[in-house]
Amino acid sequence: MTDSKLTSLPEPSTEASGGCGLGRREFLGVGVAAVATALTGCGTLSKEEFLQHNFQELSKEEVLSVIARLEKEYKAKYGKDVKVGTTPAMPGVIFGYALDLSRCIGCRRCVHACVKENNQSRNPEVQWIRVLQLDKEEGVNLQHAEQYYNPAEVPEEGHFYMPIQCQQCKKPPCVKVCPVGATWREKDGIVVVDYNWCIGCRYCMAACPYGARHFNWGEPNLPPDQVNTDTHYLGNRPRPKGVVEKCTFCVQRTRKGLYPACVEICPTGSRKFGNLLDKTSEIRYVLENKRVFKLKEELNTQPNFFYFYGV
Amino acid sequence: MFNFRNFKQFIIDTIGLMLTGSRIYYAWVGFLLLLIVIGTGAYIGQLNDGLIVTKMRDQVSWGFYIGNFTFLVGVAAAAIMLVIPAYIYDWEPIKEITILGEMLAISALIMCLGFVMVDIGRPDRFWHIMPLVGRLNWPQSMLAWDVIVLNLYLVLNYFVVTYLLFCAYTERHYVKKIVTPLVLLSIPMAVSIHTVTAYLYNGLGARPFWNSAILAPRFLASAFCSGPAILLILLQVLQKTTKLKIKDEAIFKIAELMAYTMGFNLFLTAAESFKELYSGTEHVVYFQYLLFGLKGHNTLVPYAWASIIFGFVAFILFLVPKFRTNWKLLNLGCVLIYASVYIEKGMGLIIPGLTPDALGEIYVYTPSFTEIAVAAGIFAIGFLVFTLMLKAAVPMMLGEFTMSRGRKKATEPEVEPS
């Protein structure tokens, strides 16, 4: 078995502590707000939104007011009561994921369940899971991967399938390169993005070896009737244009003890998910009893996402 | 001594000089303003619709904007090419040229910052990246380093240029104790802006094409080819259109120095190509995409070979003394090396770095009309800044226009930059 050190490193918490006042920013902000509003190109930027600081630095009161503002905005936009949660990481939990390559049939139900659950833009459709069709003769060789396979029936002769999503690395290169600290690794091992702090430079996308980060090139197109109203600030709340997003292991679900949407939908049971710190969990069973590997292990990103051949 | 009334007069006179000129000057400025208007229009469209109006997508998430940014950082860094011999060896013929190099650096940096600004998805959040006010992820992020060094380099060059001109304007010799340390500081600063920009790509394990130890040396070597090439052309234009006298000796000396950097640049390119192509590991796909095409996609191939051939021909032209002292051949060499580096450090760097993408997909990127229009606008801003600076600086440098003699005597020299 490969390195699966389960110790957690001291990470920035989502829970606000201390909190820094908006004094100096207020000073800067008011004068520049007009220019900034012009720069958004839509002219709907409120002063509060413009001045909002990084989520990790907000005090509890500030978090509450941000959530209230967002919920109001979503209500106005979608005509629905969208609940924006801020549930922090559970103590004693680091999430791990394992995917059985011998079971996956490449049906892409996970892809679509993910889009539905996580409020991705529908047109153009943003997909956090990409399923690769690989040649059995070539093995896991990405240069022989095909993402746009479209036969009447899967699986196809001579092929196997490899779904790829955020690998929730223990040493995430995306976090390291972000110039403004808009993305970080939570205590439960989930790498999240503050969509209200991201400047959209896309350096993280260049740094990610898994193509797991996606950019809202245009205004996200999310029809009101398809909005999932159960959201998390760091997860599936509707995103603005011009920011990066990614798989969060369905943080809005998993922190409540539910499985990620992709695990729940998988018709073949290829997807295993659980707490790496819990010795009785299914994920630990897989790590103990199956021979697992990590994608692009040589890059030392140390994913908490494992692949294995179950049969 | 410095006093505010003089400085205010200096600013007013500078603006005055910028606003008056010949018909050709107005036509040139008008042309640049037109490009800026077109670029602004395209950019407003991009702000409204998002970066979807570009051809960049998740697979190729950086393109024409960042390619131009990278190339122009090189141009900005190359100012030191001229500073080194002038100040270290105290070589007078080049000294007067250094201020031109610094003005070129300022213009290039303004374009660099422009290209970064148009590339980000949320320009309204620019304050997030400002030191102290925002939350700069320093020292971890190379982009944070780049923000810092580029701005410092801009301020430094701006200060030196302003100071030197102000001294010329007030007819006093500049204080060596102020200028020399700053100019010497600008040498490591110039190296560092280009090194940090190289590290920005270099540090990404996910992108084997960039993850090479000689990327930063290659950046520097190519910058020292393209930057001086622009200046050589510019110097000839100034010599013809103004009273500025630049000794041929100085130009040929720069050309000789360029021959060495061009040779070194070719050597580094060869070293990199050999390593990738001969060992033929899985990383070779990016080089294949650039040089030979991959799976039938060969958009970059003609550009890549043009870059290599131009670079080689220019090297020969600059290496042989008989050729480089022939004005026509020298200028041909300048154009060739400029084109070569523009391809190599622009699209030739960014696109194969991202193609095939992290999952092996080939997305063929070519810039959209919006990207080209916005880029043209930014180049026009850079040229405009440079033109205006030259317009005011040249008569001051020549001592034609000073505070005491002022506007009355100033005969307007025609400035027509390349």
Main attributes of the structure:
heterodimer, A: 311 residues, alpha+beta, Alpha-Beta Plaits, 2 domains, four-stranded mixed sheet, two-stranded parallel ribbon, 12 strands, B: 418 residues, mainly alpha, 16 helices, globular, disordered C terminus
Show the helix and strand layout.
The complex is a heterodimer of chains A (311) and B (418).
Chain A: H1 23-40, H2 47-51, H3 60-78, E1 83-85, E2 95-100, H4 109-117, E3 130-135, E4 159-164, H5 173-177, E5 183-185, E6 191-193, H6 203-207, E7 214-215, E8 230-232, E9 244-245, H7 251-254, H8 261-265, E10 271-275, H9 282-289, E11 292-293, E12 305-308
Parallel strand pairs in A: 1-8, 2-12
Antiparallel strand pairs in A: 2-10, 3-4, 5-6, 7-9, 11-12
Chain B: H1 4-19, H2 23-49, H3 64-77, H4 79-88, H5 92-119, H6 142-169, H7 176-202, H8 215-241, H9 248-279, H10 284-291, H11 301-319, H12 321-324, H13 327-345, H14 347-354, H15 369-397, H16 406-409
Helix pairs in contact in B: 1-15, 2-15, 3-5, 3-7, 3-8, 3-14, 4-5, 4-7, 5-6, 5-15, 6-7, 7-8, 8-9, 8-13, 9-11, 10-14, 11-13, 13-14
